[in-house]
C-alpha cells in the first residue's frame, strides 16, 4: 500500500520524491479518470440503504444508458468494510457491465438519517449576495463551526451541506444545513485503498437520499398546481418539503419514526402548520414511498386527522408502480438524477416543475452534493498537470544524461582517433613535404577561384539586343538614331590607412539612346524615370534573358538621365511621299536617355584585382 503524507508537512525535496513515487506506482499521471467526479464516469456503482436489513445495489453504464442490479452487499460489510477487494474485483470484470470498466464511480445514497441544522450566517450572507448561496456553501464545507448556529458540533463525527429555500418569503429562513454522520466513510476509504493497490481509478461520493428524491419530483409528478407538501417516507424518518404555488421550495423538516411506527408522531398537526407557513390556500400533501404498508398507514393517519381535526387533502404516490422507475433497480428515485436521459428530459423543461428555479438548481448540482470531503484526499496527491510536468522533466533528465554520455563518448573517441592518427608518426621531412603540398593546393584553389570569378558572364551582346527590344517593343513608335553600350570597371578604391588592399572592384554599364518618338513611346520612357519603374524594367529583362547581371540587388544602383524635346522637323501635314523620303517628319518629339547600372565591389559580379597566375 502506498504511504502518502500531507504535502503541507513536507519539504520541497520530499514533495518531489513523493510525487515521483506517485507517478511511478500509480496510474494518476496517465489516466484522467482519477480527476473526474463519480457521476461523470461512464461506469457507476450506486448503493442505497435506509437502515433496514438490505442494501440496494445498482450499476449504471453511462455509455449504454442501462441500469442493472449490482453485486450483493450485506449491511454488515457496509459497516465494517469487509470483503471490499472481492466486490471491487467483481465490479471491475465484465460481469455487471457490458464491457470491462476502466474506472468506477461509487455513489453512496444515505437514506437512514436526515438531520437539519440552523445556520447562523444565513440572513447576513443572503442579504448581501441575494440568491447566490455559493459562498455560504463553501464556508459550510471548509469551516462548519463558523457557519452553524451551534458552535459545539463535532466535525469528526458529522458533515454538513447547504440546502437553499429558493421559494422562501422575505423574513423567513432562506436555507438550512443538512447533516449526515461520517460512519459510512470507513467503507469508502477501504475501497479507495484497495483501488490504489490495484491501480484502478475509483471516485466516491456520499449523497443525501431525501434531497435526491426531491430533485426527481419533476419526473414523478409533472405538476403540483397550487403548491403542496411533499412527504417522502423512509424506514426511520419522513422528510417533508413545502412547495409553493409557484413550484419553489419553501422549507423542509425531518420527522423521526418512533416506536417502530411508520408514521411520525403528530404528523397531521405538523403538516397543517407547515401548510400554513407555506401560505397554501388548500392544505395538500403528496405522500411518496416505495412501501405500500407505509402509504396505507399514512393514509389512515391523515383520514383520521381530516375527520377529527382539520380538513386536509392528500395523494399517495407508490414508487413501485411508477413507470419512470420501471428500469431502475429497487425503484429508487434517487438514481434518476444520474441517468443521462432523465437529465436531458429535465434540462429541456418538459414539465412545469422542471422549469422552476428550485429544480433547475437541484439538477445542476445541489442535489448531488457529496457529504464526503474527497477534495482533501485529492490534495494529498499531485494533480494531473503536475504529474505531466514531472514526466516531461524525467524525460528531459534522461535526454540530458544521454546527451552528456554521448558527448563524452564522442569526445573520448575523437581524442583516441586523433592520438592514433598516422600524422603522429610523420618525420620532420615528411611534415615539411606535406606542408608544402598543402600550401601549393591552397594557391591553386585561390587561382581557380579568381579565374572562375573573372570568367563569370557580366556583359553579353544578345542580352543588350534583348534589352533594346524590351525597352522599345515592336510598333512602339520609336526611331532610334543612335545607341551606345559601354561596360567598364570602376576605379579601384584606394588602399586604407593601415595598408589594407581591396580585393575587387565594381563595374559600370551604360546604355545611351538617342532618337525620335511618338506620344505612345514617350509614355514608355516616362515610366522609367523613377527608381521603382527602372527596377521593374531590369527585373523583366533578367526574367526574359536569365542574365543575373540585370537583376536588381542591394549592391547595384541604377540611374537614368532622360531629356525630352520637340522635333523641329515634325510636319503633321506631310504627304506619304515626303514621309517616305524623310521619316523624321512623322515624329513630334525627340529624346536622349542614359541608363547607368553601377555594381559595387561587394557585388557577386565584381572584378577581382588579384592576378590569377
Characterization of the model:
Keywords: Membrane, Transmembrane, Transmembrane helix. The chain crosses the membrane at residues 395-416. The protein has 613 residues and is α+β, with helices and mostly antiparallel strands. It folds into two domains: 80-378, no CATH class; 461-608, no CATH class. Helices cover 37% and strands 21% of the residues. It has 19 helices and 19 strands. It has helices at 12-25, 75-80, 84-91, 122-129, 134-142, 185-198, 209-215, 217-220, 267-277, 292-308, 340-347, 357-366, 374-378, 384-419, 428-454, 461-471, 519-527, 531-545, 576-581; strands at 43-49, 56-61, 66-69, 104-110, 115-117, 158-164, 175-181, 202-208, 228-233, 237-243, 249-256, 284-289, 313-318, 478-489, 504-505, 507-517, 556-566, 589-599, 607-608. It has a five-stranded mixed sheet with strand order 3-2-1-4-8. Helix 10 (292-308) links the parallel strand 12 (284-289) and strand 13. The chain is elongated and about 140 Å long. It starts with 11 loop residues before the first helix and ends in a 5-residue tail after the last strand. Mean pLDDT is 87; it is low at 125-130.
Amino acid at each position: 500500500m502506498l504511504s502518502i503524507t500531507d504535502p503541507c508537512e513536507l519539504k520541497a525535496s520530499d514533495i518531489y520524491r513523493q510525487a515521483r513515487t506517485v507517478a511511478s506506482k500509480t496510474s494518476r499521471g496517465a489516466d484522467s479518470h482519477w480527476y473526474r467526479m463519480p457521476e461523470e464516469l461512464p461506469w457507476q456503482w450506486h448503493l442505497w440503504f435506509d437502515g433496514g436489513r438490505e442494501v440496494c445495489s445498482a450499476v449504471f453504464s453511462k455509455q449504454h444508458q442501462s441500469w442493472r442490479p449490482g453485486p450483493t452487499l450485506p449491511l454488515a460489510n457496509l459497516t465494517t468494510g469487509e470483503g471490499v477487494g472481492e466486490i471491487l474485483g467483481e465490479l471491475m470484470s465484465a460481469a455487471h457491465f457490458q464491457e470491462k470498466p476502466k474506472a468506477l464511480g461509487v455513489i453512496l445514497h444515505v437514506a437512514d438519517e436526515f438531520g437539519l441544522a440552523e445556520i447562523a450566517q444565513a440572513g447576513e450572507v443572503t442579504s448581501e449576495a441575494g440568491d447566490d448561496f455559493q459562498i455560504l456553501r463553501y464556508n459550510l464545507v471548509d469551516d462548519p463551526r463558523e457557519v452553524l448556529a451551534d458552535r459545539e458540533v463535532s466535525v469528526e463525527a458529522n458533515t454538513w451541506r447547504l440546502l437553499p429555500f429558493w421559494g422562501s418569503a422575505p423574513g423567513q429562513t432562506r436555507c438550512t444545513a443538512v447533516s449526515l454522520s461520517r460512519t459510512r466513510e470507513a467503507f469508502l476509504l477501504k475501497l479507495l485503498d484497495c483501488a490504489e493497490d490495484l491501480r484502478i481509478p475509483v471516485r466516491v461520493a456520499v449523497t443525501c437520499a431525501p434531497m435526491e428524491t426531491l430533485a426527481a419530483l419533476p419526473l414523478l409528478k409533472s405538476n403540483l398546481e397550487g403548491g403542496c407538501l411533499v412527504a417522502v417516507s423512509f424506514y426511520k424518518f419522513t422528510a417533508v418539503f413545502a412547495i409553493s404555488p409557484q413550484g419553489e421550495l419553501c422549507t423542509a423538516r425531518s420527522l423521526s419514526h418512533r416506536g417502530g411506527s411508520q408514521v411520525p408522531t403528530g404528523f397531521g398537526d405538523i403538516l397543517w402548520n407547515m401548510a400554513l407557513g407555506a401560505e397554501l390556500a388548500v392544505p395538500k400533501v403528496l405522500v411518496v414511498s416505495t412501501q405500500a404498508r407505509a402509504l396505507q398507514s399514512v393514509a389512515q393517519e391523515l383520514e383520521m386527522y381530516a375527520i377529527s381535526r382539520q380538513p386536509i387533502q392528500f395523494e399517495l404516490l407508490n414508487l413501485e408502480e411508477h413507470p419512470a422507475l420501471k428500469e431502475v433497480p429497487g425503484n429508487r428515485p434517487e438514481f434518476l438524477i444520474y441517468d443521462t436521459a432523465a437529465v436531458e428530459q429535465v434540462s429541456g423543461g418538459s414539465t412545469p416543475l422542471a422549469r422552476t428555479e428550485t429544480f433547475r438548481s437541484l439538477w445542476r448540482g445541489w442535489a448531488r452534493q457529496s457529504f464526503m470531503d474527497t477534495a482533501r484526499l485529492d490534495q494529498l496527491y499531485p494533480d494531473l498537470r503536475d504529474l505531466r510536468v514531472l514526466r516531461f522533466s524525467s524525460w528531459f533528465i534522461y535526454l540530458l544524461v544521454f546527451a552528456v554520455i554521448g558527448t563524452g563518448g564522442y569526445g573520448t573517441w575523437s581524442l583516441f582517433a586523433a592520438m592514433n592518427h598516422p600524422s603522429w608518426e610523420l618525420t620532420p621531412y615528411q611534415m615539411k613535404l606535406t606542408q608544402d603540398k598543402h600550401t601549393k593546393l591552397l594557391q591553386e584553389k585561390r587561382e581557380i577561384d579568381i579565374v572562375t570569378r573573372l570568367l563569370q558572364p557580366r556583359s553579353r551582346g544578345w542580352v543588350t539586343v534583348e534589352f533594346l527590344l524590351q525597352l522599345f517593343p515592336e510598333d512602339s513608335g520609336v526611331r532610334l538614331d543612335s545607341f551606345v553600350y559601354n561596360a567598364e570597371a570602376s576605379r579601384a578604391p584606394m588602399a586604407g590607412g593601415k595598408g589594407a588592399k581591396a580585393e575587387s572592384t565594381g563595374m559600370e554599364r551604360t546604355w545611351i539612346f538617342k532618337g525620335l518618338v511618338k506620344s505612345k513611346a514617350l509614355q514608355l520612357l516616362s515610366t522609367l524615370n523613377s527608381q521603382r519603374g527602372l527596377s521593374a524594367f531590369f527585373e523583366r529583362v533578367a526574367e526574359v534573358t536569365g542574365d543575373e547581371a540585370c537583376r536588381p540587388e542591394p549592391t547595384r544602383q541604377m540611374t537614368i538621365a532622360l531629356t525630352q524635346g520637340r522635333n523641329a522637323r515634325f510636319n503633321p501635314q506631310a504627304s506619304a511621299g515626303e514621309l517616305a523620303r524623310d521619316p523624321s517628319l512623322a515624329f513630334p518629339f525627340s529624346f536622349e536617355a542614359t541608363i547607368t547600372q553601377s555594381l559595387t565591389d561587394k557585388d557577386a559580379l565584381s572584378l577581382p584585382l588579384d592576378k590569377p597566375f
